[in-house]
Amino acid sequence: MTRIDTVDTRNKLKPRDEPYWVKLSTGCMLGYRKMTAGSTGTWIARYRADNGKREKRSLGEFNNLPPSLRYDEAKKAAESWFLHLGKGGSTESVNVRKACERYVLHVREDRGNKPAVDLDMRFKRWVYSDSVLSKLDLTKLTKTRIESWRKAMAQTPVKVNRDNRDVPLTRLRAASSVNRDIAALRAALNFAHDAGSVTTDMAWRVALRPSKNADGRRDLYLDPTQRRSLVGQSPPDLAELLRGLSLVPLRPGALASLTAGNFEARLAVLTIGIDKAGRDRKIKLPETTAAIFTKACENKPSNAPIFCREDGKAWNKDAWKKPIKLAAAAAELPTTVTAYTLRHSVITDLVTGGLDLLTVAQLSGTSVAMIERHYGHLRADLASAALAKLTI
Predict the structure, then answer these.
(1) 172 contacts 155 by C-beta, under 8 angstroms
(2) In 3D, which of 363, 368, 365 has the Cα closest to residue 285?
(3) H-type helices in 233-356, by residue range?
(4) Statement to judge: residues 58 and 161 lie in one domain
(5) For residue range 324-375, what is the model confidence (pLDDT) as tens digits?
(6) Which of 84, 96, 147, 231 has the fewest other C-beta atoms within 10 Å?
């Protein structure tokens, strides 16, 4: 069998279509194909399964390495592929981009278009833009490469202003924002792992772990009087949206996306479409709140927003951000007030009002663990009062 492990022996090989093969182990061959006398040459792996079926895979030229190191690198790549196949991995070559695209399709079929579009946007911005990572075969992913991508992504400044001013304002990305983007890639890679496109998750298991306590504790709380003041200082269309946020513990985007068809006035039931929580849920509204939603839905087609802007369009964060700041200033409230402040304030009232955390989590569309993390400390006074009743 011809040697291909040294530069001299490879240089002496005659060009031909059929690769020169060397046996690495039973059923596992490494080949070197030299088509012309002056070509770099390509490396190929060949695998024979127990049933006799053969599979081939091109490993590339490795021309980024000195000629003396190419054999060792090709051998390492071949052995990695053989190990992958031996563990039941797919023979198909799947790179990071293809894994992400397949996951987007899966989410679209399983959960709908909205979360799929969100994922696709994250991948386009942070994964596909990295031409090296996106083209990398899943079997060649390393912990170092994933960590390098995560660090670069986390340190990329983001644009803060969106009103086309000449000088863009930027800031470093928040840890919570980074967590959401790495969660998207982690989910795509895990999906590929489950499908057998790669047989180990060692490259990303640790490298894509979320940062702990990234969200922090949301301390800005508006009491009912302050919330009424904020609503009172807002334009009529925004006031309706803020009143809705003050009545139900929904994410601002989830409330803004609700249409008249989501509210059943006869039963006073509000159906929350798929939002960040990932599934539909229903909320039985109290009589006074149901009356407000009933009025907001009057004479509207089922596909019209329950709470809309003056021009009839649905609200979004870019539309409500500045008006809320102006209303907060007029109401002499902190400059850090946002639409999300109302959700936090409502959840705070529910927790301190004695509602169990499971029900709060269900109403809010989040997990008990998340409610416990951000609002568990508010139960201290309730616990103290309960303990006081035990006095004998």
Answers:
(1) yes
(2) 363
(3) 236-245, 252-256, 287-297, 317-330, 339-352
(4) no
(5) 999 999 999 998 899 999 999 999 999 988 888 889 888 888 888 888 877 8
(6) 147
Please give the Cα distance from 28 to 55 (Å, whole number): 10
The residue assigned the tokens 């989590």 is 361
Q: What is the pTM assigned to this prediction? A: 0.55
- Angle of helix 287-297 versus helix 236-245 axis, rounded to 10: 140
Closest CA to 22 of 38, 37, 44: 44
How many angstroms separate the CA atoms of 89 and 181, rounded? 27
**324 near 234, Cβ under 8 Å?**
yes
Pick from 58, 86, 114: which residue ends a domain? 86
- Are 346 and 255 members of one domain? yes
Count, residues in the chain: 392
* Structural domain boundaries, residue 102: 96-205
Which one, of 259, 380, 367, 371, lies nearest residue 308 by Cα?
Answer: 259
